[in-house]
Amino acid sequence: MEEFADHPGRYELFVGAANFSMRTGRVELAEQLFFNCLADSLDGQWSFNQIVRKYDNGADGYNAESNHLSTARYFLVSAQAYLKEKRGLTLIDAACGTGALASCLRSYADNLIGIELSSGMAEIARHNYDNMIIGDMCVALNELGPIADGVFCSGAAYYFHDLTPFLRGAAGALKPGGFLMFTDFAAPDDAKVMVTIDGTKRHCRSPVLLREIAAISGFVVEGFDFSISYGLPVRIWRFIRI
């Protein structure tokens, strides 16, 4: 497939190959294939208003889209394995969308908090949570103070070129020893931040950079799982608040 590495239409080819590799257990190969779908991040960030419009406009049909449901299911495989017999926790579902994680997380939480930027999505999800906060998750996490045992975030980190505000916000919302579990799309180790060349624009970070940001934000890295998010290979990271 090397002859297609610079082809202008390579995105669908390499995404399909990466997805097939993930499903057949060749996770390292999947990431290497996915790297052919990335370019230097030169075109700026998502704006606040762009994200709000995207999710407000798509709120009513969001739960019917198989890609969203399968992404939540893959994430919950890792979440359940990590939570195991834990009970009675205060958990935060950051960028909770319409609440796809909520019914599972409820099994482990006495207090389940949702944070969602889109008011349309939040209204659909509200009944699944003890408390729903509508707004920027980085700001909301900071304002909560250290109340949580765990923070989950499935699928939203790719909107940020710089993930530091999110990580610092999560650290501020966690008790010492609390955990953060979230998805992040990988870029090559020497690349820092790249962006997908087609489809939904996703910022992708090198694991080396992510570990550096985590350290300065107050976390130690516990590990990660390889998974699939929106048909793309992704890492589900686990950080512990120092």
Structural overview:
- It is a single chain.
- The protein is globular and about 50 Å long.
- It has a 7-stranded mixed β-sheet with strand order 4-3-2-5-6-10-9, with helices on both faces.
- The chain contains 9 helices and 10 strands.
- The longest helix is centred in the first third of the chain and has 18 residues.
- Helix 5 links the parallel strand 2 and strand 3.
> Spans of 5+ residues with little confidence (pLDDT < 50)?
none
Order of neighbouring strands in the sheet with most strands: 4-3-2-5-6-10-9
What's the total number of strands?
A: 10
Global mean pLDDT: 94
Structural class: alpha/beta
Roughly what percent helix? 25-40%
In short:
The protein has helices at 10-23, 27-34, 48-58, 66-83, 102-105, 119-125, 137-144, 164-173, 207-217, and strands at 38-40, 89-94, 109-116, 131-134, 148-153, 174-184, 193-196, 203-205, 219-229, 232-241. The protein is an alpha/beta fold and 242 residues long.
Can you tag this structure with a few keywords?
242 residues, alpha/beta, 7-stranded mixed beta sheet, 3-stranded antiparallel beta sheet, 9 helices, 27% strand, globular
Architecture blueprint of SSEs:
Blueprint: H1 10-23, H2 27-34, E1 38-40, H3 48-58, H4 66-83, E2 89-94, H5 102-105, E3 109-116, H6 119-125, E4 131-134, H7 137-144, E5 148-153, H8 164-173, E6 174-184, E7 193-196, E8 203-205, H9 207-217, E9 219-229, E10 232-241
Parallel strand pairs: 2-3, 2-5, 3-4, 5-6
Antiparallel strand pairs: 1-7, 6-10, 7-8, 9-10
